[in-house]
Amino acid sequence: MAGRHEKGLRTHTVTTSAFVLREDGVIETIGDAPSLGKDVPIPNRDVPDLPPQLVHRDDARSLWLYHGNCLELLDAIAAKYPQGRFDCIFADPPYFLSNGGITCHAGRMVKVDKGDWDKSRGPELNHQFNLEWLRCCQRALKPNVTIWISGTHHVIFSVGYALQQLGYKILNDIAWEKPNPPPNLSCRYFTHSTETILWAAKNENSKHLFNYQAMNQVTGKQMKTVWTIGPPSNGEKCFGKHPTQKPVALVERCLLASTNEGDLVFDPFLGGGTTAVASVRLKRKCIGIELDTKNVQMAVKRVESAARLRRAFGAASRRTRRVVLLTDLLSAHKKKACPASAGQALE
Question: How many structural domains are present in the chain?
C-alpha cells in the first residue's frame, strides 16, 4: 500500500503480514492480508510494484539482489527469521543534501542534485525515516553482530541519535578522509573532505566480532579511526557511476574488520552494488536491495564482473597466508581496463 505524505515524501505501509520470504529468496504477497503497520515516509525514487523483486541470484556465492523497498524486505526477513538473519549490515542511506546547492566536479561548477530521493523533507521526517529503517535492521541482525552507516553531516547526527534511541551500542565513529576533495566554491566554509562512518553493535549486550589482527596487518600497527582512502577508481565506475558511490576498499575494510568468510552481509541501500562487490571479493554472502531501476542494473553488472575476477584470482588468494584484499591484487597487476573485459580475458 503506497501513498503520499503531506510534504511530498512517498509512504508505504510497513507490515510483516503481507509478505513471505520463500526458501529460494523470492518474496510473495500473501493474498489480501490486512496491513498491520503504519505509513512510513521513504525517499521518493521510482518505487516498483510490491513486493520486492529478486533480480539477481547466485547460489554458488550465496548472493541475492532485490529491486524494491528495503523496509518491506526487512519485514519479510524478520518474520521468517525472528532470531535474526544477518552477520553484518553496511548502509549508505540518503544524505538529504540535494537542495539546490553547488559543488565542483571535474573542474566545473555543478548543482548538488542527486535525485528526488536525496531531497530533505525537514529534520523531523528525515529522522523518522532513519528511525524506521534502523529499527527494521535491528530486528534482522543476529544478537552479536554489528552495523556500519556512512553519511555526511547532513544525516549522520540524526543516524547517531536514532541508534541511541533504539538501544544500539555505538562502537566507533570513523572519519573517512578523502585525499583530493572538491574545492569549496563559495569560499565561506572549510573544504568538506571527510565522511563519517558509525560502527554499532545490535545492543549493549552484544559480544561483537572485531578482527583486530587483520586490521593490524593492513596498516602495520593498531589502526586508528581516521582512514585515508581515495575515491572509486575508473574501473569501479565502468558500468556507470552512482552519485554517492563508495570505494570498494572502504567497504572491504569494514567487512574485513567485523565479519568472517561465509558470513551474510546485508545492504538496505545497495546503490551501485559496492557492498555486494566487496562481499564477493572477500568470500562473504550478501543480500542487497535498491529502489532505483538503473542502479539495480548497474549493481548486477558489477557483481557479475566481480564474480568473474574472483574465479580468476581465487587460486592466488588461496596460496597466500596473510590477509590480502583483491584490491591489492588488482593494483599489483596494474589493470587499467574495465573489470568486465579483464575478467573475460582471464576466463
Answer: 1
Supply the range of the domain harboring residue 84: 52-346
DSSP helix, strand, coil percent of the chain (3-state; round to 5): 35, 25, 45
Please state, in angstroms and as integers, the Cα–Cα distance from residue 83 to each residue in 244, 259, 276, following that order. Answer: 32, 18, 24
Per-chain mean pLDDT for the chain:
79
Place of cell 581496463: 337
Identify the sign of the CA torsion 23, 25, 28, 34. positive
Residue 282's CB: how many other CB atoms inside 10 A? 23
Residues facing 176 on adjacent strands: 195, 227
* Residue 238 burial (10 A CB sphere; 0-12, 13-18, 19+): middle
The half-sphere exposure of 267 on its side-chain side, counting CA atoms within 13 A, is 32
Prediction pTM value? 0.78
**What are the tens digits of pLDDT across the range 263-297?**
999 999 999 999 999 999 999 999 999 988 999 99
Lookup result for grid cell 596487518? 217
- CATH number at 162 reads 3.40.50.150
What's the first-to-final CA gap in the chain, in angstroms?
A: 46
The per-residue pLDDT for range 226-262, each reduced to its tens digit, is 999 999 888 898 888 777 889 999 999 999 999 999 9
Q: What angle do CA 221, 147, 229 make, to 5 degrees?
A: 45
How many other C-beta atoms lie within 10 A of the C-beta of residue 231? 14
